[in-house]
Amino acid sequence: MAIAALSFGTLSTAALGKTERLGGIYNISYAGFTVGKGSFSLILRDNAYSAKVGMEPAGIGTLFSTGKGGAQATGWMKGTKVLPSTYTMASRASNRNFYVSLGQGSGHVRTTQVTPKYKPSKTRIKVTGEHKLNAMDPLSAAIVSAPSSAKVLDPSVCDRKLPIYDGWARFNINMKFKEVREVSSNGYNGPVIVCSARWEPIAGHRPERRAVQYLAKNAKIETWLAPIGDTNLLIPYKVSIPTATGTLVLKAQQLNLPQTSASPKKTASR
Description:
Elements: H1 2-6, E1 19-30, E2 33-45, E3 48-57, E4 68-78, E5 81-93, E6 96-105, E7 108-115, E8 144-145, E9 160-165, E10 170-184, E11 189-203, H2 210-217, E12 222-227, E13 233-242, E14 247-256
Antiparallel strand pairs: 1-2, 1-14, 2-3, 3-4, 4-5, 5-6, 6-7, 8-13, 9-10, 10-11, 11-12, 12-13, 13-14
Protein name: DUF3108 domain-containing protein
Pfam families: DUF3108
InterPro entries: DUF3108
């Protein structure tokens, strides 16, 4: 959930009706060891988007888990806002199935289906209908918009609050600008904007839980965002979440992004 959430528009296309297809393969590591692989795909047409992610164990992760899962989201761009329409997530872990379906509209979560439901708890902060207003699913939150295609590396890209509801919990991701870097790797060659990210629990959590307290106080979370061609959209290149026993990192192993008009096409080594 954290990666999906932390792993963070309007679309400017050259011609009406033009479709952009992009995607990437991500490596997931913990304390320096590969534990999983992730995939991400995004289709953009006019002001509509369709996104899909998948995750499964890899490396030493196969020794501890056979679980895998994926999620899909669709929606629209209006001005500088991402307006989700649908979101579904299905996964299996520890011999249990997990499923979420969110119906969304006008920037609000309208309907929710979730399995399993949380067990009753006196200490859990209850999610109310009000918490689902002005909220979005975690996958749509990963699509980040800049004020314009000329400002994809502007500090304002980072300086924002993402209000997220994943079907079980409502939380904010509060982002702040840190710096702009040039990266050169098998996944992507070019500039990225680095944002700090703070997880702010709102509802659905149990405040006394040590993991909740640790994550809420964690000031070292970062997300690195890569621009998408000549658009004003960015997608995650890297997400880093330090924990008490090691750092959880999601990093692009290969990104297939559209060519920009101002630079030659960047290719990834395989």
